[in-house]
């Protein structure tokens, strides 16, 4: 007699809910420290967080690809690109802000703000940066979208990789890699637009007249995008990026993280139709949370270094909960403190405002306030004075003393300025500017000009060996003033 066994039921975690064949990342056998990468085939998730990730991907990629083409009028002779890193003229332009090399502290402040902001967001909401805004995540999402378009969803891709080579497989694989390379090349090409006038460098790039550095960096970005988003993917997050190690020091039991609520889910196991839910957890061990995970972990094992906080497992689990008529939120943004509180019969509470987050917020606000104050109060005129040391001073035939100085005048305005030079601090100084008769200095717009200045002083009684002297530059039209102090050496 032949006995037929229905294997379909064995593959069901609950009636109508198939058990995913995603491998269980945890095992009683210790994992080898050295092993080849196992390909991960993330399943397409549907839900709120997947839609948020689509939105983030479209917006952030749109900004990256479109921003170099945005124009911003800065006046005659000035670049009209809204965002431009101009190495040739040593400028950084960001809409109405122009940063000179002497103002690199603004870049430093911006980096400090970015770090503090990341600390604050992580302490409050876990690794949302990694899950929604990190370039590695954004481009990997895009590459997986292309892969899914040509090869199908998770099961279809697994089946295709196991299948023998055929015309269909060659076509799908080739088409996927061609599109990957086109996206990578576009990414690398757009990168160089941020360092040159976009329309000009785009034209020169394709006609072979662009600088060699443009081709080199475009090739580097093309290669890194293709390899990191197409092949290395989760390995970048797990092994190359330092942030998973750092974020462990920034979160605590009150930080919101993608959390498996084991107080509700355990004990887990398959659920038969009509069976009671008493004495068991809501987790039916369908492993759909593992199937959608882009890094291939099981969120039920708790907070892990590999988890990027993308919340796709929340969407997958909520979809299953609806099918088995159980409340959503078995996996959700929650805190470890709340899970422990529910087990103890206490009311859960969310503490986004606590000592850690307040410190980050206060320091962030302080640094931001200092930067804003400095930016609003920045002068369009700058002066730097360097006194000659060889010779230290010159004694003239009439007994007076002469000191030489080189002054650098920085005009950040968009128009040419005629500035009046004077000095304070000496009894009766005689001021001379080499190469001209008067004390009016003409400085072109958006430029730095060096001037050679001589100071002669004959009243040396009250000065001593050295005296303080202050150079002053005044724009008579706007009354903008630049001051720089130095010394006058007599040798007496």
TrEMBL record:
The chain crosses the membrane at residues 52-70, 104-125, 178-195, 215-232, 357-376. GO terms for cellular component: plasma membrane. Residues 1-31 are annotated as: Disordered. Residues 21-31 have a biased composition (Polar residues). This is Ferredoxin. Keywords: 4Fe-4S, Electron transport, Iron, Iron-sulfur, Membrane, Metal-binding, Transmembrane, Transmembrane helix, Transport. Residues 273-302 form the 4Fe-4S ferredoxin-type domain. The gene is fixG. It comes from the Bacteria. One of its GO terms (molecular function) is metal ion binding.
């Amino acid at each position: 007699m032949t006995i037929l066994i229905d294997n379909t039921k064995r593959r069901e975690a609950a009636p109508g809910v198939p058990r995913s064949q995603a491998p269980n990342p945890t095992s009683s056998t210790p994992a080898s420290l050295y092993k080849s990468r196992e390909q991960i085939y993330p399943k397409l998730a549907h839900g709120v967080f997947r839609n948020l990730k689509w939105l983030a991907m479209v917006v952030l990629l749109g900004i990256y690809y479109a921003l170099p083409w945005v124009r911003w009028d800065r006046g005659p002779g000035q670049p009209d690109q809204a965002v431009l890193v101009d190495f040739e003229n040593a400028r950084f332009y960001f809409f109405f802000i122009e940063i000179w090399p002497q103002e690199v502290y603004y870049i430093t402040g911006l980096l400090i703000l970015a770090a503090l902001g990341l600390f604050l967001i992580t302490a409050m909401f876990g690794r949302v940066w990694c899950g929604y805004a990190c370039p590695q995540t954004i481009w990997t999402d895009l590459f997986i979208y292309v892969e899914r378009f040509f090869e199908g969803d998770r099961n279809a891709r697994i089946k295709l990789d196991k299948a023998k080579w055929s015309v269909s497989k060659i076509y799908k694989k080739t088409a996927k890699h061609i599109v990957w390379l086109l996206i990578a090349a576009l990414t690398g090409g757009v990168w160089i637009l941020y360092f040159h006038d976009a329309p000009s460098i785009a034209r020169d790039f394709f006609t072979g007249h662009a600088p060699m550095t443009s081709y080199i960096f475009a090739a580097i970005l093309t290669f890194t995008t293709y390899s990191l988003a197409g092949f290395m993917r989760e390995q970048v997050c797990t092994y190359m990026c330092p942030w998973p190690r750092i974020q462990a020091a920034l979160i605590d039991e009150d930080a919101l993280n993608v959390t498996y609520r084991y107080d509700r889910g355990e004990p887990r196991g398959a659920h038969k139709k009509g069976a009671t839910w008493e004495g068991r957890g809501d987790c039916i061990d369908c492993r759909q949370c593992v199937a959608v995970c882009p890094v291939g972990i099981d969120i039920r094992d708790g907070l892990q270094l590999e988890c990027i906080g993308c919340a796709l497992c929340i969407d997958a689990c909520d979809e299953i909960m609806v099918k088995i008529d159980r409340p959503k939120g078995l996996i959700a943004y929650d805190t470890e403190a709340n899970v422990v509180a529910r087990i103890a019969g206490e009311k859960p509470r969310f503490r986004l405002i606590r000592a850690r987050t307040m410190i980050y917020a206060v320091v962030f606000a302080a640094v931001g306030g200092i930067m804003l104050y400095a930016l609003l109060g920045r002068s369009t005129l700058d002066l730097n004075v360097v006194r000659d040391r060889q010779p230290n001073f010159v004694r003239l035939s009439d007994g007076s003393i002469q000191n030489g100085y080189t002054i650098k005048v920085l005009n950040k305005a968009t128009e040419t300025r005629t500035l009046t030079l004077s000095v304070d601090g000496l009894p009766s100084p005689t001021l001379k500017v080499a190469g001209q008769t008067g004390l009016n200095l003409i400085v072109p717009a958006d430029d730095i000009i060096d001037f050679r200045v001589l100071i002669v002083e004959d009243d040396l009684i009250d000065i001593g060996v050295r005296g303080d002297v202050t150079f002053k530059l005044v724009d008579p039209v706007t009354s903008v003033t630049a001051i720089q102090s130095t010394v006058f050496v007599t040798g007496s």
